[in-house]
């Protein structure tokens, strides 16, 4: 898995999900309203759908929080090894600043852009590690 993954890599899992979802939602909906009187079936169906939507919203919010916190954690962990006093970082900043300078930026802006580029690489790495750890792709 890399930061370049897109829809094509998740096609099979999305097809499995799309095929499996009707086989779970329809029976659950029928089960939720099967014990109700016919006059209460509409209200029961509405309550079931409200609970399903609310559960989906809360679940999405929880997962989003987990992913965001994971990205922040891994961003901080990677960023702890990147500081302006390490020779390898100085060399990389100089290379990137030279590239930006050759594209027409002044020296200060080129250096600022170089640090911004490194920060983007760190963020992307943090997001990648978070994604992998949330999917349990690599052993801890």
Q: Please tell me what the overall shape is.
A: elongated
What count of domains describes the coordinates? 1
- Label the structural class: mainly alpha
Overall mean pLDDT stands at 86
Question: Which H/E pattern describes the elements?
Answer: HHHH
Radius of gyration: 24 Å
Number of helices: 4
Largest sheet: none
Helix proportion range: over 70%
- Runs with pLDDT <50, length 5+? none
Report, as a whole number of angstroms, the end-to-end distance.
Answer: 16 Å
Strand content is: under 5%
Total beta strands: 0
Question: Concise description?
Answer:
Helix content is 77%, strand content 0%. By secondary structure, it is an all-alpha fold.
Could you explain how this protein is built, in words?
The chain has 140 residues and is mostly helical. It has one domain (7-135). 77% of the residues lie in helices and 0% in strands. It contains 4 helices and no strands. The chain has helices at residues 11-34, 41-79, 87-102, 107-135. Helix 1 runs antiparallel to helix 2, helix 2 (41-79) crosses helix 4 (107-135) and helix 3 (87-102) crosses helix 4. The longest helix has 39 residues, at 41-79. The chain is elongated, with a radius of gyration of 24 Å. The chain starts with 10 loop residues before the first helix and ends in a 5-residue tail after the last helix.
């Amino acid at each position: 898995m890399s930061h370049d993954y897109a829809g094509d890599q998740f096609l099979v899992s999305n097809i499995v999900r799309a095929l499996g979802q009707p086989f779970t939602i329809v029976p659950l909906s029928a089960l939720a309203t099967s014990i109700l009187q016919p006059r209460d079936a509409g209200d029961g169906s509405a309550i079931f759908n409200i609970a399903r939507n609310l559960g989906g919203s809360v679940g999405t919010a929880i997962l989003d929080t987990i992913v965001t916190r994971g990205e922040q954690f891994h961003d901080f962990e990677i960023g702890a090894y990147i500081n302006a006093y390490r020779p390898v970082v100085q060399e990389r900043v100089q290379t990137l600043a030279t590239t930006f300078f050759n594209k027409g930026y002044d020296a200060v802006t080129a250096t600022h852009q170089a640090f911004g580029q490194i920060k983007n690489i760190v963020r992307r790495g943090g997001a990648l590690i978070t994604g992998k750890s949330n999917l349990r792709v690599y052993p801890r």
